[in-house]
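Training component of the fellowship. As part of building independent skills, the fellow (R.M.) carried out the full modelling exercise for a liganded target. The chosen ligand was glutamine. The inputs are recorded below so that the supervisory panel can assess the work.
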Amino acid sequence: MVQLTKTKEVPEKLKVGVLALQGAFIEHIHILQRLPQVSLAIPVRNTDQLSLVDALIIPGGESTTIALVAERSGLLEPLREFVRSKPTWGTCAGMILLANEVTQVKEGGQKLLGGLDITVTRNKFGSQIDSFEAPLHIQHVTTKAENDDDIYSLFPAVFIRAPVISQINSPDVKVIARLEHSIGDTDASTIVAVRQDHLLATAFHPELTKDDRMHQYFVNLALESLGKRRKVA
Ligand SMILES: NC(=O)CC[C@H](N)C(=O)O
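Fellow's submitted model of the complex:
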């Protein structure tokens, strides 16, 4: 868990937006509404809504579609600007959009927001029917299980047409989760969650479980990074 220093500069409450152009956004909003530090949780579809929020979640869905709709609605540049300095968490397709480099892109290329110094491989585990749930140890979120039978404190991560992080391209990127076991031809210890400064990315869908620990982690990270920014401002 990120430790917050209680100073005047650290905002107590957070306004969080969830990009709602396509994909699994409503589930994120429902979890955020349960967290005491979140004063506002809204879908973001335009620049007015984006300007209301302190932090943003880019949900799972289809990254090519999300990028296309963002471009058509004039949101691509405002989103790029937002993720440069404000806390943003990309889940699955959202993680793809936050990467600086993506492999297995569709013909004709794919627009990205960028920000994370990682290379992401899309659709690493196959199609929708190859979806699976895997218990994960996530740094700062779960505590390492005492023994193999004790999986209750691990995070139930749901992977749907999921990408993986195939390369870390900067020492500023911190790995926070890896697969505990191999899945098909994907090795155990493949990287599935990272943090770089104010940016967070997970290959899986934490909004599709009843476990709100990942959302709580993001809220803490966002409050901490906004607090730091206000202190230097
Ligand atoms: N569940 C998801 O978000 C899937 C991501 C999708 N495979 C993509 O490339 O955008």
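The panel noted the following from the submitted structure. The chain has a mean pLDDT of 91. The CA atoms of residues 151 and 159 lie 18 Å apart.
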